[in-house]
Amino acid sequence: MGQRFSYGGQAVIEGVMMRGRNNLAVAVRRSDGIILHEEKLRPWAQRYPILGVPFIRGSAALIESLVMGVRALSFSASQFAEEEEAELTTKDLIMTIGFAVLLTVGLFIALPAYLVRLVQANISSNVLLNIVEGLIKIGLFLLYILGISAMEDIRRVFEYHGAEHKAINCYEAGEPLTVENVAKYTTVHRRCGTNFLLIVFFTSIFVFSFFGRPPFLQRVLLHVALLPIVAGIAYELIRLAGRPNRPWWVEVITAPGLLLQKLTTREPDAEQIEVAIKALQVVVDKDQAKQGTALGSPGHVVH
What is the pLDDT of residues 62-79, one digit of tens each? Predict the structure, then answer.
């Protein structure tokens, strides 16, 4: 029997993307039915074994997931354009990801580093200063989530996010993927990307405490340079969180992320659940036909 594997993905516009061992499926609901898009995958860690090494694989998996996520979003958006849109070129993909990275650095690294300067003269402890900066980052993240939650289109995405989690929870429980079975499961999942982001924030507080309080520009550059290390640590913690025999302290550090998922997921309707089932069933069937993938075991895919 092959190595056990758990599935993950993300919500897209009126749909869900699911990723398997060597394939990806995007299911999108339009007025004329469910449109399905499939891609074969060759994970980076298979092509470059060094990218599968612990504490290195975290950054690689994050970037790989971002690339696949942008492609999936592009496909889903194209299904609702008045005219058929061309597939994203490599240049378009690089520009889109570059913009997302710049926005993330600006909002969650540069802005907190600037704001913490306003109070650092009154804080003598470097650890406490980094805790304050970490709390600012978390506060900004919460405001961002609350802000986009007011948008109707985003609320729909959050409903599909909930459908994705429900389908995976049902699958991992070993039940058949029917609308009735999936509907009874929770919209919360420990391997959710929301959990990963909060763990990144918590990990950054610890890591950055070892580097004193450099000037603003140096602080921003240092935080950017250390981000792969922070992401690598956070990824290993997410892997631990997905195990049934996870340590108690992992339960503690993942608890805030589970609460936050109450904001980033919504209860889906039956049609949204059907879309999530379709995407998941495609990748599961492909994997089982090719490799005999084991069922229902928590794994390491961040979704």
Answer: 899 988 999 999 899 889
Which of 2, 7, 4, 1 minimizes the C-alpha distance to 192? 7
Residue 220 near residue 198 (C-beta atoms within 8 A): no
Tens digits of residue pLDDT in 93-126? 788 888 988 999 999 999 999 999 999 889 988 8
Whole-structure pTM value: 0.88
Q: For the residues of 1-66, what is the DSSP string, one character each? A: -PPP---EEEEETTEEEEE-SSEEEEEEEETTEEEEEEEE---HHHHSGGGGSTTTHHHHHHHHHH
With H, G, I as helix, E, B as strand and everything else as coil, classify residue 68.
helix
Query: What is the separation of C-alpha 158 from the centre of its chain, rounded to a whole number of angstroms?
Result: 13
Strands (E), the chain: 8-12, 15-19, 23-30, 33-40
Q: Under DSSP, is residue 109 helix (H, G, I), strand (E, B) or coil?
A: helix
Residue 266: φ, ψ to 5°: -135, 160
